[in-house]
Amino acid sequence: MYTPEIYKNENQEEIKKFLQENSFGLLINQTNGKLCATHIPLELDTNKEGKDILYGHISKENPQWNGFIDNDQILAVFSGPHSYISSSWYDHENVPTWNYIAVHVYGKIKIIEGEAVIQSLKKLVDKYEQNSENPVRVEDLSKKTMMQTRGIVAFEIEITEIQATKKLSQNRDEKNYQNIISELEKTNTNQSVAIANEMKKCPI
């Protein structure tokens, strides 16, 4: 991912928090000489060796998983808030742009089987059911329902590289920076307000 130095995010704790909060990603690999991509939750975790991994699963009907066997190199893309930035918000002539937060994760993927699959599903369900009034638990599902796990391919991705971009108008002076925040809040969309809030956390 091309990222000018001024927008690079190298704060590892911040990046991990971002991945945990924006885990619905885009899994990209090459299968049969063709680029494939699937939108799925990819959860950050640590394996038995203490290495950072992502885990997830896709349907066996999805041909993308065949590529995991021939080539273990993958790219996972995670997007955060983003918003258009009008150059009319500056006190000088310039071009419009876009502010955004994104993380690219490179790694080696391997298929997992057996009890490891159930454990990965349990962690996934527990994370997203924790605020439910009547949370579902994998342990409570019937054998009939759990038979559906035969229709998935579960995997782990050992992370080899992370590239993180946080483009939040860091190239502007204090006056224009604060005015961009104000105008984003006036725009009052979920994305513009989210970017304004991120800019407030990242003073220039």
Automatic annotation (TrEMBL):
InterPro entries on file: Split_barrel_FMN-bd (IPR012349), TR_PAI2-type (IPR007396)
Pfam families: FMN_bind_2
Designated name of the protein: FMN-binding negative transcriptional regulator
Chain ranges passing through the membrane: none
Record lineage: Bacteria, Pseudomonadati, Bacteroidota, Flavobacteriia, Flavobacteriales
SUPFAM superfamilies linked: FMN-binding split barrel
UniProt superkingdom: Bacteria
